[in-house]
């Protein structure tokens, strides 16, 4: 029987079908189709089966990528799925939204050798969709109930991943979240054209069916005291993420018509659910018939520009202070935005918001020049003399990143230590905070980061909580 692997010489790189830009901007559906079985197995067969799998080391979850590509190429699709889910609580979600070009696919030996990468992310998504379509998703049924309770603050990717692992181990798990739907940024931050909401909902439903309890519309420190929550559980995991937006400090930045990216994206996603959103319906968070300028170069900025296009903006421009090669976001998302008609002003930084009390009329920006590389390889920038220019705008969206909220104050927990960056301080190489029995994971520890890192930390924190509780039992015995 011929080997089903290492066919990169004869099988060309091919991604899944992508909707044409003229069609996809009409709705918020995912723009990429899932592979058909023949496509999935064929693309999996391109893997070189390296002795040292750089794709795996490039994945924050250390997924066993060559192994499940091999199984998929041989038609053993359910086995491939089982191996995929062994290291990830939500592979079909990561397959959709991870910046694979900067992670596993960017590290692929074929990519480095000029053969074009294996389409790892698309195969991962396909395996997950096959699993749900064919009923391969195992219900959460612990072998035994341990009689211990875990409280998780935050229903985003870190909290959901931790809940999956803890409930599977036999713990009673309750997740608390301030929003009315679980999922965190998966639900309210990421637009449907990258991640349709039913994909998140089916993961949440699996947790509910497995016995995980959700207390939504619940603000810890307001609706429930943090000390009371600690008293109700044997351990607590803080997985709140970081939601405080960095804002412009340029003159005029407080004008009507300057909005934070997350406010804008949440409003759009709520409309997608059919919610009544006054700030959208009345216009402030709606790009329809407006000239839109988005400031920033990360994936959130790309989400904003592409959302504005779908809302019917007259024009959409992205302003970023570095060049394309130095932007932090996914190159794939930038290409998608360009295909959809977004204009990019590279090497440009905001100087002032133009307009008056009635609203903005434009953004004054300055041309920037690359100055010197930093230790992480990105270049610093400095203003180029005489390079100011104006961009017309009716809506300016700030996509400048996120910072942690002041959790010690919100939780009324002075002993909950934070770092200089206001993230929660945890033990070296671990997740224990300075409060006994309280752990933290995800962006509230790392700072604003990728969903895949939140999943990794949620899973690892769950393992540490499990070990900590078992040690407590051993001491008590």
TrEMBL record:
- Residues forming the Dihydroprymidine dehydrogenase domain are 24-135
Q: Which Pfam family, an example, fits this chain? A: Fer4_20
**What is an example of a GO molecular function annotated in this UniProt entry?**
oxidoreductase activity
- Domain (FAD/NAD(P)-binding) spans 150-458
Q: Which UniProt keywords apply?
A: 4Fe-4S, Iron, Iron-sulfur, Metal-binding, Oxidoreductase
The residue range of the signal peptide is none
Keyword Metal-binding in the entry? The reply is yes
PANTHER family (alphabetical): GLUTAMATE SYNTHASE [NADPH] SMALL CHAIN, GLUTAMATE SYNTHASE [NADPH] SMALL CHAIN-RELATED
- This one is known as Glutamate synthase [NADPH] small chain
Its source organism is: Brevundimonas abyssalis TAR-001
């Amino acid at each position: 029987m011929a080997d089903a692997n290492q066919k990169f010489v004869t099988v060309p790189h091919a991604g899944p079908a992508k909707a044409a830009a003229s069609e996809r901007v009409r709705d918020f559906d995912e723009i990429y189709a899932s592979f058909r079985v023949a496509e999935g197995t064929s693309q999996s067969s391109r893997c070189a089966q390296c002795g040292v799998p750089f794709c795996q080391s490039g994945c924050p979850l250390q997924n066993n990528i060559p192994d499940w590509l091999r199984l998929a190429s041989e038609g053993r699709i359910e086995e491939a799925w089982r191996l995929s889910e062994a290291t990830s609580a939500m592979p079909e979600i990561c397959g959709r939204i991870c910046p694979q070009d900067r992670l596993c696919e960017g590290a692929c030996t074929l990519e480095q050798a000029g053969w074009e990468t294996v389409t790892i992310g698309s195969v991962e998504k396909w395996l997950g969709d096959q699993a749900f379509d064919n009923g391969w998703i195992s219900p959460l049924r612990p072998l035994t109930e341990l009689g211990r309770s875990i409280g998780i603050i935050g229903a985003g990717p870190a909290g959901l991943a931790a809940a999956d692992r803890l409930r599977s181990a036999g713990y009673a798990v309750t997740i608390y979240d301030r929003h009315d739907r679980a999922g965190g940024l998966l639900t309210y931050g990421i637009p449907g054209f990258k991640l349709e909401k039913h994909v998140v909902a089916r993961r949440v439903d699996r947790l509910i069916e497995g016995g995980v309890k959700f207390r939504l519309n619940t603000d810890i420190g307001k609706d429930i005291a943090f000390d009371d929550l600690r008293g109700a559980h044997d351990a607590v995991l803080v997985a709140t993420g970081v939601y405080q937006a960095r804002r412009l400090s340029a003159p005029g930045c407080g004008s009507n018509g300057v909005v934070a990216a997350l406010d804008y994206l949440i409003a759009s996603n709520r409309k997608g659910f059919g919610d009544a959103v006054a700030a959208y319906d009345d216009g402030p968070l709606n790009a329809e018939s407006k000239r839109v300028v988005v400031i920033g170069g990360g994936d959130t900025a790309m989400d904003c520009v592409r959302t504005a296009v779908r809302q019917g903006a007259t024009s959409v421009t992205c302003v970023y202070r570095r060049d394309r090669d130095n932007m932090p976001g996914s190159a794939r998302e930038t290409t998608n935005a360009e295909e959809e008609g977004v204009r990019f002003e590279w090497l440009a930084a905001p100087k002032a918001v133009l307009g008056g009390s009635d609203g903005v009329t434009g953004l004054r920006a300055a041309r920037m020049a690359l100055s010197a590389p930093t230790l992480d390889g990105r270049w610093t920038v400095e203003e180029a003399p005489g390079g100011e220019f104006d961009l017309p705008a009716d809506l300016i969206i700030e996509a400048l990143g996120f910072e942690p909220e002041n959790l010690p104050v919100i939780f009324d927990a002075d002993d909950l230590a934070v770092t200089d960056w206001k993230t929660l301080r945890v033990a070296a190489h671990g997740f224990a905070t300075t409060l006994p029995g309280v752990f933290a994971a995800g962006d509230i520890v790392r700072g604003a980061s990728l969903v895949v890192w939140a999943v990794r930390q949620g899973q690892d924190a769950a393992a540490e909580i499990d070990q900590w509780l078992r040690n407590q039992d051993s001491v008590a015995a």
